[in-house]
User: Fold this.
Amino acid sequence: MKKWAAKRDSDSKIVIIQCKINPQLFLDQMDDGPYTLLNEIDEIINPAPTRSFRDSWEDNGSGDVQVNMPAARAEKMATFRVERDKRLEKTDKDWVEKSSKSESLTTTETYKTELRDMMPDEQTAVDAETDDDTLATYGASWPTDPNA
Assistant:
């Protein structure tokens, strides 16, 4: 029979693992330990929270894994910032190209401003999410790229 165990690694992250032997024995044999066995179960009835926020999992005190919503919100905003930075980088290249051709830069500059200014609104929307499933599916309201 397969067993499942929740373990906390050295970075205090919770990981769900499947064991073919006694879970504590399995954890003791792992090279990258030490680990703390949080919970041992015969089967997963309630699957772990959404995989979208694995870095935000925490032990709820009774051995179950739950999503730390403030950490999940921060994780979501970090993904938005990465995407925004990519869009800003592309827009910078468009701006250089247009300026070298003496083309109007107004729409590009407006777009860059919209990208920079959107994060507080997105933060407000993300902060309003109280459920990890809806937070996982929430998408940012990106301004329209005039150069697309």
